[in-house]
Amino acid sequence: MTASARLVAMLRDPGNAHALGLSEWMDVVTVARAELLLGTLAHRLDGLAVTAEVRAVLDDARAEASEVRRTALWEANRVAHALAGLGVPVILLKGTAFVAAGLAAGQGRSIGDCDILLPKAVLPAAEAALAEAGWEWVKPDAYDDLYYRRWMHELPPLIHRDRDRMLDVHHTILPPTARPTPDATALIADAVPLGGGLAILSHNDMLIHAAAHLFADGDLSGGLRNLWDIHALVVEGGADGLAQRAAQHGLGFAVDRAMRLSHALYATPVAPRWQRLTIPDRIFRRRMLARDGWGRGRHPLTRLAFYVRSHLIRMPLPLLLRHLWIKWRKGRAAPASG
């Protein structure tokens, strides 16, 4: 069994940890770090009898996850404060949403940027308010700025000049150039208020967003963590009405694959229709488990294929080629450093 497979087995059933020797533990911890799942694993194994060496690693991971949670909640508070004048709730996405709502998916979760969703109509006012509150653009290049504003589902990324925290302001959950076109109006209309100017997506929309992020907008890097999000959301809140809501957003294919793979890897309780993998699903599973015990990528051709796929599903080929040509020319024209 590979280290990635052992990590999945331990997340699925913490009792599997008893059979591991120290070298196997080292491999699992390394892969968990690479997949941003060490805090989640530490939470799952809390209270389990392990060696002193392993206990120290897991204790550190739990402490770090607690600090990450505190920082994420404070950043969400600051964003809501800065945008209070807009008159619309700030809808939290991904990990920050999970911890703000106290969901099981947030337990031990790694959180990087603060991701939010706002109506597209308020983006100019949001930009001005955030700039006044200390956020600055990460990408000063004029072409990068235009690329985000014209083709992406979010503003160019921002960073706070004092706290050094990244903020991604979305107006929908997939690039407008992608084939599926989620109903952003419905996402916002059905958001669930949390108080303090904050909200989260509805339960099914959180599941759909997680599936879209995993299978319709990327190369599956960090896929085990994102799939665990889906598992935890389903275990806690079920999947009633999920298929119908996914169809409304044009993301039935992504949700179906997410449910099948979550069941296959994490034994997520799902409807019978989602309990058997397709042949393409097995290729996706191979990509998601493509790490060795050092945390390095395995199956280079598989990873390359998914990298190419991640670009092709974001925009039509002519537009992609134009974008890559411009980036290549700009790279060649950039002055050498040093």
UniProtKB/TrEMBL annotation:
InterPro entries in UniProt: NTP_transf_5
A Pfam family recorded for this sequence: NTP_transf_5
Protein name in the entry: Nucleotidyltransferase family protein
